[in-house]
Write a structure and sequence with these properties.
Elements lengths: L7 H11 L8 E6 L22 H14 L4 E4 L1 H10 L9 E5 L27 H6 L15 E7 L4 H21 L2 E7 L12 H14 L10 E3 L4 H10 L5 E4 L6 H13 L4 E4 L1 H4 L4 H12 L5 H15 L7 H4 L11
Parallel strand pairs: 1-2, 1-8, 2-3, 3-4, 4-5, 5-6, 6-7, 7-8
Helix pairs in contact: 8-10, 8-11, 10-11
Protein name: Fructose-bisphosphate aldolase
InterPro entries: Aldolase_TIM (IPR013785)
Length: 342
Amino acid sequence: MSAAPLKSLDQKLARIHADPAGCRDFILADAKDADMAFGIAAPGPRSGESGFKSLADYRDQIREIVRQGLVDIMLLSASNVEKLAIEERCFAKSTVTPAARANDTSDIWVVRGGKYPRLPSRSFRTATLDHIMHARLDVPAGTPATGADLGLYSITFTNNLDQDHQALQDYRDFRIEAERRGFRHFLEVFNPNVDPGMDAATVPGFLNDHVVRTLAGVASRGCPLFLKIPYNGPAALEELVAYDPHLIVGILGGSAGTTHDAFMLIHEARHHGARVALFGRKINLSEHPLTFIGYLRAIVDGSIAPVEAVRAYHGDLARLGIKPLRSLPADLELTDQTMSYR
């Protein structure tokens, strides 16, 4: 029996920490956890039809991307970890690491008719660590995970003492449980989802200070592997990256936007010090996710520039017989996208 392949995530993290200044590795993740935010709409609209794709469609796309092997992490809901990682063993012979959304704060409850994203974020965890790791409860500590031993934990600070105090207490409880269970995590920190009572220009510093302050009291065994934050511009990203070379900073993708939006975002974030990008809707809502991911990887590897990549992507769509969502001139536009679920 051949040995399981080494996970590219673990190899890249080791190389980055060994040489933070010189290592050029970049970690790319596909966020297919949208069923914990959007519900029925998570798989995206059906091409040329009304309604949305099915869960089966969503899982088929996940399987294809795992087989492609260009992403380092596949982020899923706990139910999809059970189906794909445990039952089907999709990741057993792959370099891709499965991960699960470990909490689902109220600001990502983006359901039709709901107003939750406009209200101050509240902590909540649907998934249990046992279910993420083993798909069942009361598994003895130390039992190797058959599902995922990596998860995303999310916090949205709102500048409200009671709400932020509760969010930090819940994160503390999660870290203790995760360390005892041998469960790793990465930390997502959103910009405030409600008016935080400060000028918009102050928000990036507010987020950076909260990240550093939150983690300053955490020993290395309890720290996240890396961060997932909005891209708040080059100055804010560079400030956080420069503070600690071993605090690996990643950016989130946010809304779909144009292809140039996506390609420029990952290029700019890479240029200003990000070492990770987690793109969900930008991949899922693209015309051909496998080709789209191929260009994301080429951009962070430095083999193609964003504008050239947009043109090449449209050329590939034409060869594949796929009608683009936008004309090439429209897809080359840069639009102002909010980098969050909202």
